[in-house]
Amino acid sequence: xxxxxxxxxxxxxxxxxxxxxxxxxxxxxxxxxxxxxxxxxxxxxxxxxxxxxxxxxxxxxxxxxxxxxxxxxxxxxxxxxxxxxxxxxxxxxxxxxxxxxxxxxxxxxxxxxxxxxxxxxxxxxxxxxxxxxxxxxxxxxxxxxxxxxxxxxxxxxxxxxxxxxxxxxxxxxxxxxxxxxxxxxxxxxxxxxxxxxxxxxxxxxxxxxxxxxxxxxxxxxxx
Length: 223
What we know:
The protein has helices at 12-23, 30-38, 44-51, 58-74, 88-102, 116-123, 163-186, 200-208; strands at 2-5, 26-28, 79-82, 108-113, 127-129, 135-136, 155-156, 191-195. It is an alpha/beta fold. It is globular and about 45 Å long.
């Protein structure tokens, strides 16, 4: 299992899609499942938090992640996460679950670094495809695209990609995600630092060269 962590707009989704295609993993995009849950009337509070740029209640998020991950494990597939876990509280719930399921030796954590200035710059220009949410980075080589190169669907912008919301979410990352790295190190994990301000292909190559340290990217799952 691969965990791609980092601030907003650091390219986690793009890299997760590339890893999924290369290694046959399932890209579990946490925000996709959270948004589906928030459409339910009983989660109106969470919906309001999300649209204001706040992060969701950690225990609620961890429960959804564990449920969805369990379904993928049952299919015998490995996982790549983009941006999960985001808080120490989530990590404390999710990590024992994943360690039990696939073994500590099969978990690899990356931190894709990106400055706040670059995060804002990328966010206001990036897009996603309407049908399958394929990420279209806010780089010059993608600015002339009028349809998704993966499925041909319309390209749209995320409603949260506004400078003031991006700045708020970047601070959330500093305050709530960065402490996870010390927690993981205390548990004996290495957190691999990746320069996210490189071209996409270079970031991908830097990630892939570390995957040889995982005994198996699709490990046996314990019941």
